Amino acid sequence: MKESSPKITRLGKIGRSLRNKQSNFSIPKINDKEAQRLLTSLIDILPGTFYRCRIDKKWTMEFLSPGCLNLTGYKPEELIENKKIAFGDLIHPEDLGSGWDKIQQAVKQNKPFQHTYRIITKDGQLKWVWEQGKAVYSAEGEPIALEGIITDITEFKLNEDALRRLAKENEIIANIGRIISSSLNIEEVYERFAEETQKIIPFDRISINLIDYEKNLVNVVYTTGAKVPGRQPGDSFSLNGSVNQEVAQRRSGLIIQPEDEKEISGLPLPQQKPFHAGIRSQMAVPLFYQDKVIGILSFLSLKSKAYSNLDLRIAESIGLQIAGAIANAQLYKEHKIAAEALRKSEEEAKRLARNNALIAELGKIISSSLEIDEVYALFAQKVRKVIPFNWLAITLVDKQEGTFYNPHTLGDDIPERTAGKIIPLAGSFTEEVVRQRYGTIIQMKNAEDIVKKFPKLAPFVQRGYLSFLAVPLIHLDEVIGALHIYSCEPNAYSENELTLAESIGSQIAGAIANAHLYLAHNKTLEALRQSEEEARRLAKENEVIANIGRIISSSLNINQVYELFAEEVHKVIPFN
Q1: In this predicted model, which residue has the larger pLDDT, 235 or 314?
Q2: Which of 68, 92, 331, 401 is the most buried (most CB within 10 A)?
């Protein structure tokens, strides 16, 4: 802060020039009466008050011109001799000490002094004043009083403060622009932006929202500070009735500062949400890009009446500074998302192509022989290339008997699940898959809960298995069994593996059903062959036994028929 007003300094210089004997001006001679009149006129018309006071810390006044009333609110007679209050008591406490020290130094050096300080007027108003004065000395050279002028410079001071604040605002807004434009990955700089913004606009929460006009949604892209449910980064909410919609339609900022619950309840429902979370003041300004409102910058405070029109002006300047960078960053983000989506799409297409090729190959493998045991190991090895496992099994169910068995397994040796072992269906993972007719994944979280729901999984849980995947095998719209794929790794399976396993199950179900029909047919033929052989054997036995009966009965002299009897018995019972 400068110590003197330019206007008053010039006046002081003119006064000194007039007193200077070397002045080039010619001052007309006037009598004492005219001089008194001129002095009185000058005292009346010059701003502020002329004074004479004793040199003490109370600034005990001996004389004050009438301008004292406009300056302090007190009449001269109320201040002279401290009759009602001392002038020193009007000086702001923070300025009292420095002013006294400056005057004492000037008195010692017999020099004029200038001092800028604050006073508190009779009605409590704070004013800035500028004082210029000089000590008066006795014939002996002792300082006996101070004489000078005190004038109001509040307006000048406020203008100076305003200019200083404006300069600071411009500097900070420029810094905000540099920060927000320093990276296209704008999430990296939001925190620095918020820190810089808070230097000129106080807030308990700041947020940046982008508007999706096609979906009629507001997307929250950044917030820091107080939490508002449903208004956190990543949240979306309807544009209808919101502050965002109002600001976008107005194309200018607004301040909402309800004084009580009644005023809050009078707001549109979407606008009430922050205030129900404890917010008491909200200021929102538009973010323009290519003459379109793309979003809203909001400042929220827990204090009532926290924001003024000056704050709104600054907020709008910040909004103009950052909108372009936010729009460009959003375009960059969308480009990255699109590029990533394209990359994933290409990878997904390649993965699907590989999976489809594998599924086709598995279909060929499993269908290459009706003797499925011959190809099962090759089938399991192919599956392991795309779905890792520690144990794999094909399960067939007998719904009438309420049982299932695993005709084929591969992987760890689980004694309770050896191939061909008949197991009750109740309480099994197979029962669940057969019942719901779609695949299921179980990722181990709580072993006790899993075993409680599926007791038949206990042997696997006890051996450290953590991930279980099973899909139904459906043939002619009937669930004939399930494909089980289990792993000891945590979270081993996702929707991708489940979808692939279901495709594999669909591909192999028919072949497995046909293979087991073929097996059943072969068993039936074998049983029939064995039945025919047994019939022929029985017929032969019956024929031999009948012959033996005739031989034995052909003579009472049994020794005559023994040889014939022995020959006939040898036909059905070999002996030595």
Answers
A1: 235
A2: 68
Rounded CA separation 20/492 (Å): 100
Q: Is the pLDDT of residue 183 over 90?
A: no
Looking at the fold, whether 407 and 330 belong to one and the same domain comes out as no
Round to whole Å and give the CA distance between 74 and 173.
44
Contact 88, 115 (CB under 8 A): no
Residue 318 lies in a domain: yes
**Quick one: 404 exposed, middle or buried, by C-beta within 10 A (0-12, 13-18, 19+)?**
buried
> Residue 190 and residue 326: Cα distance in Å, rounded?
10
| Nearest to 117, CA basis, from 82, 142, 93, 143 | 93
In Å, how far are 25, 192, 301, 437, 511 from 514, measured between CA atoms?
Answer: 129, 68, 73, 20, 5
* Residue 490 within a domain: yes
Same domain flag for 378 and 435: yes
Q: Lowest-confidence range among 59-63, 305-309, 441-445, 552-556?
A: 552-556
pLDDT tens for 411-469 read 999 999 988 899 999 999 999 999 999 999 999 888 888 899 999 999 999 999 999 99
Indicate whether 461 and 427 sit together in one domain. yes
Structural domain count, the chain: 3
CA distance 405 to 291: 71
Q: How far apart are CA 493 and CA 485, in angstroms?
A: 10
Q: pTM for the whole thing? A: 0.42
| Model pLDDT for residues 259-272, shown as the tens digit of each residue | 899 999 999 999 99
- Please say whether the beta carbons of 285 and 320 come within 8 A: no
Cα end-to-end span (Å), the chain: 138
Residue where the block lists tokens 């913004």? 197
Domain match, 148 and 179 both: no
The span from the CA of 467 to the CA of 462, in Å, is: 13
Residue type, 241: G
The residue behind tokens 């004939």 is 480
In a domain, 354, yes or no: no
Domain-terminating residue out of 522, 543, 564: 522
Give the side-chain half-sphere CA count within 13 A for 78: 13
Tell me which residue range forms the domain holding 283: 175-336
Determine the number of helices (DSSP H) and then strands (DSSP E) in the chain: 17, 17
543 domain-assigned: no
Assess whether 138 and 186 both reside in one domain: no
Residue 147 has a CB neighbour count (10 Å cut-off) of 14
